[in-house]
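REVIEWER CHECKLIST
Item 1: Sequence provided? yes
Item 2: Single chain? yes
Item 3: Sequence as submitted:
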Amino acid sequence: MARPAPARSKALFAAFACAPAFLGIAALRRGPNADAAAATEDAGIRFEDTTDQARLDYRNLFGGAGKPYIIESTGNGAAWIDYDGDGRIDLFVVNGSTLERQEKGERGPGNRLYHNEGQGAFKDVTAGSGLEGGYWGSAVAAGDYDNDGLVDLYVTTILEGNHLYHNNGNGTFTDVTARTGVGGGRRDSVSAAFFDYDRDGRLDLFVANYVRFDRPYLDRVSPYCLWKGLRVFCGPTGVAGDANVLYHNNGDGTFTDVTRAAGLLNPELKSLGVVTADLDDDGWPDVYVASDSTIQALYRNRGDGSFEDMSLQSGAGYSQEGRAQSGMGVDAGDYDGDGRPDLFVTTFQDDYKTLYHNDGGLHFSDATYGARLGQVSFSRLSWGTGFQDFDNDGWVDLFVASGHVYPQVDGARLPQETYAQQNQVLRNLGDRTFADVTPSAGPGLQVVKSSRGVAFGDFDDDGRIDAVVVNMDDKLTLLHNVTRNGNHWLTVRAVGARSNRDGIGARVRVRAGGRDQIREVKTSGSYASANDPRVHFGLGAASVIESLEVKWPSGARQVFRDVPGDRIVVVREEEGLRRPP
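Item 4: Structure as written out by the authors:
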């Protein structure tokens, strides 16, 4: 974030190696709405706001109206999860609270779990699910930590301890935080990610912590700061950072904090977003953390249970001018089709959102202006983001959610300064550049609120990636992708056997239309949210995948030939392609 000056003090706060084969194609499921996605005329990327039609009545509460403290500004996230295994992704949304409610011991409005009923409708099934919460929630991570075939949830909070919920398989969850050891204490935890950093077949957990909040000290030393003449909360400059945490999954229902032993202990960071991905193609998942007004942190996985801090050496720690940016949201994706995952980081207003091109060998270069991204979101303060192929042309586009942190900007007559800000769709033109197509991207993009977390997934299985946006102190926004063109697609769900059950960390490569595309199975990225774990490929004019290859974290490799497009496939490690449930 920006660095307002303290108003009253200058003090700082302190294998199975499968031969190429064609297996089970007759058992694959064609998307139920695949025909609706095809049309002869390409009208461009288009979203509709279907929040009300979908019966999503969630309303957010996060901090007081004036946001007098920095912890009241960060907002909530959501997760796309198939919690009941019926093949349709359901929706879980975290909710917050206020300092006043915390102090009085009053409950917040609570989280919401919505079951996907099909036909674009959802049903609120929160009551009795065990996920009601009532604490000041922040973020969510999703993953099957015990490999029982059911997705579990980890919910972070603001100063109330984090929660791990075990999926019981009957529509209910049990809070197993105490016995698993992942509560984390009273910290400002704003993002988290499940990933298998040691490739032992069990999902581990990374928790991103923002700042150390000391309200009595803030009230005494500097009750407010000045930013462009406005009285606003203080921070992040002058407010102490906090260390992130890595929990190792012991395989017996417990976790161990291995942060120090893994080389990840850094109390100077002020972490907001996190993504895990194999950035150097050595088979081991690395960690990239968006940090507010400090260096962005890149940790290389050594493959021996430890990480090497490559933030500075990699070139992905600072902007091309060599300055720290206010990193907030982050994602990894291959925007130029060279087979290497690149990085995109959202930042504060009056700054560009940074695109780091992966040059290979864990070296990155700032490609923001070369990609024509330097000016398009300069005037926005941005959070959740994602590389997704919204128009199925074979090139991943970008979505950027935005919203200011200072409600005081409304009515202050500052040029281009508003609390609610328009989200953006940036279309990949296939030549290493992007174009802002927001004005023509449909009525869904005309919804203007102060947005935070975004989760991406195809909730109606029509082969087009949708999004849910969590907005500060407001309704959420369900963006239904109604793009119509003749492009084809493939969605792949990975189910591990020797690898973790979710297949997180598996690398999927498809060859179609004479070119390769690579995706990595992950739910992390964006901001405070968890994405649909299925990987999606736009195929353009190609209707058949020449080859589909999966490299598993276990080292296993499977290859399938001549896979028809416009459908969802399930690849099971050591088995083959199967019908989705």
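Item 5: Key structural point noted by reviewer: Residues 6-27, 36-41 have pLDDT under 50 and may be disordered.
Item 6: Recommendation: ____
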